Structures are given as C-alpha cells and as structure tokens.
From TrEMBL, chain A:
Record-given protein name: RiPP maturation radical SAM C-methyltransferase
Molecular function as annotated in GO: catalytic activity; cobalamin binding; iron-sulfur cluster binding; metal ion binding
GO CC, alphabetical: cytosol
Cofactor(s) of this protein: [4Fe-4S] cluster
Protein's UniProt keywords contain Zinc-finger: no
Keywords on record: Iron, Iron-sulfur, Metal-binding, S-adenosyl-L-methionine
The UniProt record lists the keyword Iron: yes
PANTHER family: ANAEROBIC MAGNESIUM-PROTOPORPHYRIN IX MONOMETHYL ESTER CYCLASE-RELATED (PTHR43409), BLL1977 PROTEIN (PTHR43409:SF7)
Amino acid sequence: MRVHLVTMPWHPLDLPSLQLGLLNRIVREARPGDEVTEFHGSLRWAEFLLERSGGRLRPADCVEVGSDAIFHGLGDWVFSGALYDDPGWGLARLRDYASGRGVPVETAVAMRPYAAPFVDACATEVLAAEPDVVGFTTTFMQNVPSLALARELKRRRPGLTIVLGGSNCDGPMGHALHRNHPFVDHVVRGEAEHAFPALLHHLDARTGPADVPGLCWWDGPVSRANPETRRTVPPADIPSPDYDQWQAALDASPVQEHIHPKLVVEGARGCWWGEKHHCTFCGLNGSAMAFRAKPGERLWAEIDRLVRRHRILDVVTVDNIIDMAYFRDFLPRVAASGWDLRLHYEVKSNLTPAQLRLLGDSGTVHIQPGIESLGSRVLDLMDKGVTGARNVRTLRECENHALTCSWNLLYGFPGESADDYTPVIDQLPALVHLQPPSGAHRIQLERFSPHFTDPGLGFGKRRPAQMYQHVYDLPEDELGDLVYLFDTEDAGIAGPVEQRLTDAVAAWRAGHAHSRLLFEEAGAELLVHERRHGRPPGTHRFAGWRAAALRGLEDGRTVPALHRLLTADGHGMAVQELTDWVRQAFALGLLFRDGATYVSLPTWGEPVRLPEGGR
Amino acid sequence: MSGLPGAVPHRLTGRRVETAAPLDIGGTGRGTAEAVCFLRECQGRGLRVTWRATGTPGYDPGILHHLPPPAELPASLALLEAWRADHAHGILYHRRGPDFVTVLDRRERGTAVRLTLDHPRLVAAFLRLLEPTPVAALDPAEREALGLLTAERLVLATGGWAVTLPPRLRQWPVPCTAI
C-alpha cells in the first residue's frame, strides 16, 4: 500500500512534525512492504503565501495567525471558506468577535483568498503520489485545513481512504469530527502506535475494523466509534522519529531562510503529577494521563542520532513534564557531550538549585516550570503541589543559572478571593528583577480538565467557546463534542482586584529590563546592590548573623526555623531581634513573604538580558 | 585567574572587565589579533568590557561590530558611532556539535545567516584560529580554509595574523530565544 502522511497548517514552521516522524517509522516497521511518503503542508502553505502574495505574507505572519491566535481560531477560520466553498464564510461573525475583544484579524483576512487555491494545489500534489491511504495528523488549529484538503481529495478520488488522527481526535472530539464529515473514512482516537497499523491491515485485507480500539468508521451511513482502550502505549513501542522527508522538504524551501529550525523529541507521555493530583484547569494530557518515559539513555541516543543527522543543536521536547529520573540518566549525558545544545523542557516548579544548575549545564536553558501563581492558597485550589514561596525561589534560581523561564500568571479559580491576591499583588514590585509572566490570564475551561469533567467544581454552565462560531458550520450540540475550549461564567476574582493584578503584571513586564537586585560577597560583608525599578539605587550591607539570615532565607523559612538554623550555626540573637530584622528586610523588599515563610530575593547571577525577539 | 586571554592586561570585577591599556585595532599584526580574541572571549562569557581603541582599521571595520564597541576610538568618530549603532549582543556567535560548528551571523542588519561548517578541515581551521595565529604558520590546506573563512567574514586576517571572529557562547542570554 501507499500511505501518504500529511501535516497541514498551522504546524510550526521551525519544527518537524513529531507525529509524521513517528507514524512514518511505525508504518515502516509494522508493514515493511508499504511505501510511506509525507506532505509537509504547513511549510508548503508558507511558501505558497510568500510566492502568491509577492512576499507580502511572510512566515512571521503564519506565526501570528497560526500560533499566537490559538484562542481566537484565526488559523482555522482562514480555511473555513475553503471547507464550506464560500470565500466570505464567517467573515462577519469573525469581525464581530474581533471588534468586541480587540483581536487583530487583518493578516488572517488577507490570507483567506489564498486558502482555496492552496487546497486545490495540495490535492493535486498529494494525488500525484498516487496514495491508497492519506493520513492527516491534527493538533490545535489543523482541523479545518485538514478537513478542507480531505474533502477535496475525496471529491477528486472517491476511492481514496482518508484517515484523521492526533490530539484533536481524542475522545468525543474524534467521533464528532467523523460523524460530521462523511468524507473522512476513519478517525484514529488516542495513541496510534498500535491502532494505525491495525487499521492499515484491515484496509489491505478489506476486513471490518470493529476490533481496532478507539477507531471511528462508517457502517453504511452510520458513524461507529469503537470503545477506546484504557491501555497506553509502553515507551518501548514508541519509536524514534524519522525526519528525513521533512529535512528534504525544508532544504528545498525558500522558507528556510526565514526560520531557525529545531529538532523535536519525545521522552515521555502523560504526567506523573497529574496521575495523583490532576491540576484542576489542565486538559493537556487528554484521556491518557499515565506517565511513561523512555530510559534517559535511549532519549540521549535519539538526540545524538538526530543532531548528527540534521546538524541542528536546538531541541524541543514535547513532554508535558520532565521525568525526574532524567536528572540522573539523561541530563548528565547531555552535559557531558560538550555540545552547545539548547533544549526546551517543561518541568515541575519544585526543583532544587542543583537540579536547576544541571539544566543550565546541559543546555536546557529554556524551561516552563508551570508556576501559574505566586499565592499558596490559589496554588492549593488548583492542586498544583507547590507553594508561592517555592515558585519565587524557582524564579530567583532561573536568574542565578541564566535559565529562560516561560510562565503565565493564571487566575479565575473557583473559591479564590481578593484576599488571596492582595498580599501577592502588594509584593510584585519587589519581584521586578525576576522574569515576569507572559501576562495575567483568566483560566479557560479545557476539555479533559477536572474543571470540565466535574461541573461541581464551579464551572457548571459551559458552552463551546465563542470563537468556534466563525470556524465551524455545525450545531452547538455537535460543537459541544468536537471542540477543546469552552466559555463559562467567570469564577474567582473580578473587578478592582483583577484590574490591580493585570496592572501590576504589566508594570512588572515594563520595569524588568533594567531591574537588578544582586548579592556580592565582600570580605566578611554581604552586599546587596539595589537596582530595581521604582526604588532608589544603593547598596545594603549585612554582616554577622544578619548576613547569615539573608543567606538562610534563600531556601525559604519561617522566623522560628531561621532562628533555629542561626542558633545551630553559633549565632546568638533573640527571637524578637530576628523578627524585627526580618520585618525591616521585608520592608526593603529584600524578602518575599508567603504566609509565615520568607524567601530572600537577591540573586547571585546576572544573565545577559535582551529584549524579546532580538533586533 | 579570569580565564580570559592573558595577552591583554585587564581587571575583572564581577561581570565587568576593564583593559589596562588601549587595544590596537589597526590590523598591522599580532596586537590586533590578540585584542579581537580578548574581546571575543569577553563577549562569549557575557562580560561587560570597557576598553579604548587605538589605530585606524586597515580592513572593513564592520566585521568587528559584534564585539562591544570601545569607549574611545580617536581615529574616527564616525567609525565609533557606526559601531555603537550596529552592535548588539549575540549578533555573531558559534556553537559546537559533535563534528560540526554552526554560526549565526546577524551583523548585516535585517539578515540572519545560518552557516554550518562540517568539512573537517574547515572546522579544524576555524577552531585553531580561535588562538591568534601567524598566517605564515598555516599549511596549504589551512590556508585554503582560511580563504573560505575570510570570505564568509568569520576570520579576521590582517597584518599577517588571523583570528576567528564568532565567540562560542558560554552562557545564553535571557530570553535565550532572543538570539
């Protein structure tokens, strides 16, 4: 059989498709006689726009529409006109939606006229490979572009078998995609390692696929959805991706001059924290929370092979959380390579300074620690398993080890109150030298999250997010099964405290670039150089037990615990004397207070700080 | 020990470096190669360096604009201003892989040239010339590599001496995606 694998816009232009890289290997290993080809439609779309628009619509515009606008559905909307054979489809609703929210849509509107001719050109190119089966992978805003091409392929060649799979097909979403789009023959729901080869076997043998777990198929005019398996794919069955066809497509593409290509690897699936304490807002792991990791040695072997083959030193991991064993059996190998790798990893926020140092030494300089909040009660409400004090320590250590820390400040949790935020907001000006969040964002209701599955948690009223009205021409009950994001009534804080929070975060972002708070050891003295926005510059000098106290609070302690530490180290001072000093240091903004716990804020490291995006 | 090249006398305080004497960038020999090497290493370590320049470059001075501009450049105010305007952290650097070197070059405003050096002789010459080296000391194969590296503006070859220009990044900036 000829199997053609397709990734449509808006797959990120700088990354190979892990999904295609895996499926390619899976099919070739399970069915050596099959021919597997790939169509990198997202790359092709960027080329198409560059060429047809005379250079006006550039790869950066694809990022704006296809990645940055995920919560507004702009990327899907660009292709809705092609799916519904109406170039003006949904335009008025999009304009209505955008004007109410201040969302810029002109780039997406400028792209719309190119979508239909692009789908036409894609169909010609895909059919030229004479495939028996075309398999689409769909995540984020790849649904409508994939459906548009699938429909055109089926129109031109009805005998072709169209298969959809990917994160957007998990659970009820996959069944809704199938039953509402008769030109889609099959939808693979859940992991494809076993299901996709099993489906190909049935197609080859012309037998019914009723035994393929999770598969959607047509029984005459009826869309059938096989029960999904609860068994997850063991790491030993997850192959190492093959990016050779992506590399060939990139090498031949004018787009490569506009992008900085990176490799994508997968060490683990699922979430070891979520297995025990599912963060209430998170739906990222879909229906497969069970944590499974490749051994660190194997992950390193995969990276070693890919780096040598593609001569690329930037590596993005897709793991939703790093396997803690990797601090023993993966990161030391990366550090020992001596190569100048740059890795991106999602981690849990409660890492030790030694673990954060190892991340830096290994080139894992871009981390996403899931900080989410600096208030302990709010972190408790979301079952995050860390405290505000711990999160502030993590931010400070990122500065000490020159780690780039991506994080969001989330709010809007049921049960939170202004009292949970006020003490944190009051202290944000003292944190201005630490890396700010991307912004303060009200949480969204995501399918698969505890907030979604248990309406009793506070989001009882929900409906498919408004943006889907300009994406799909489907009734609301069908959208209710098909989509990932939902609108609800706001929970938690609102009004003045919400405004104060967003203003304080904006001030943090504005004041960060020129703010420093640096430790320096000068003989017996401990100096703290004050260079933070909004405070007079100067140097604080500490000696004796006061210097030891400031150091002792780097780990976060209560005053009694600090007193015990200092006393054990031979320092003599009364508890009241220490309490008074802590109060003074707090008033100077040298400490962060979380309940009874205090954390020192000065940093030892002073990374080179640059504006986002460079010049 | 600062870990910086000892050929240029300097003082290191925290993350600040100050050179003891003006650095000759005229390009007439060993001194310029050693000055470039020193400034390159400061850049790679993310240190802030204060230095004064002497000499008038007998080569395209834009080739040095990835290095921190001098506080003084008596030969030409225009040259100094152009350097200050063009300079930004990380506009030229190299990274090492298993058997290749990648270079990112943004010295030309509005462009980002990615180069991968994977020919063994080219990689070897690039790495050797991290140390200032007399051109006369190179064998024919190294001279051929020098020609290619010079044409790509990755090596400064002047006054009979050659030195590699892109620093190796010892510490990523924050955000690391800015370069």
